[in-house]
Specification:
There is one protein chain. The chain is α/β, with parallel strands linked by helices. It is built from six helices and seven strands. Strands 3-2-1-4-5-6-7 form a seven-stranded parallel sheet, sandwiched between helices. The chain is globular, with a radius of gyration of 17 Å.
Length: 228
């Protein structure tokens, strides 16, 4: 049975990705900072999905938190920390927490699990289009998502022959953050005339995990927004 670990799998997008893999028969583990939340989402997904507590902002705790994960075929890290933090009102504590979670926490998770990867294992890290399209308050978010583009390259070398790629979504129209917002940003600018969906992001995640020619790539899934 394929073992799939979704870090941040209790969120809207993470749970959709976890559901996709559970429905096809994977042994799915999802994580959240709150163990009860992770377990509740796992129970809703069903198919034997399990929940664990994991806090990427405390990278020194990651090894112990993942002690019961004995093997991994697919590792997907979707967890985000996207609180607005503009330079004019810069909050150093929030910035350090966000960058630690997104870059140090991501890297430490891969390091901890590398020795438990099955042959052919693959990793997908989540960034975001803010690395190319900053917005007011995105100082930290833009910075750490840009950092993901370098992280996948060095990890691809360091964990070879295992593969690692990054996925950078545009705004996701049916995500909890945007689905109730009338006329969300960018929806009229994409060549496809709408925002991408969680199902499309989940499908792109699956593609990066299973396509054995994809390695050290940064995939944009944005409906063509970057072309405008």
């Amino acid at each position: 049975m394929t073992s799939t670990l979704i870090v941040g799998g209790s969120g809207g997008l993470g749970s959709v990705i976890a559901q996709r893999f559970a429905e096809r028969g994977d042994d799915v583990i999802i994580t959240s900072r709150d163990k009860a939340r992770a377990e509740a989402v796992a129970a809703r997904i069903g198919s034997g999905a399990r929940g664990l507590a994991l806090d990427l902002a405390r990278p020194e705790t990651i090894s112990a938190a993942l002690a019961e994960v004995t093997e991994v075929d697919n590792l997907v890290i979707t967890a985000v920390g996207q609180a607005a933090n503009a330079l004019a009102t810069f909050d150093v504590t929030d910035a350090v927490t966000a960058v630690t979670m997104k870059l140090v926490g991501y890297a430490e998770t891969v390091r901890v699990l590398r020795g438990r990867f099955n042959p052919g294992a693959s990793v997908v890290l989540f960034g975001g289009l803010s690395k190319d399209r900053p917005y007011p308050g995105s100082t930290v978010v833009t910075t750490f998502n840009a950092g993901i583009t370098g992280l996948v390259k060095t990890l691809a070398v360091e964990i070879a022959p295992y593969r690692v790629n990054a996925l950078h979504p545009g705004l996701i129209g049916d995500s909890p953050k945007w689905r109730e917002v009338p006329n969300p940003p960018h929806s009229a600018q994409t060549p496809i005339g709408r925002l991408v969906t969680m199902a499309e992001i989940a499908d792109a995640t699956d593609f990066l995990l299973r396509n054995t020619g994809m390695n050290a790539h940064n995939l944009h899934v944005d409906g063509g927004l970057l072309a405008t």
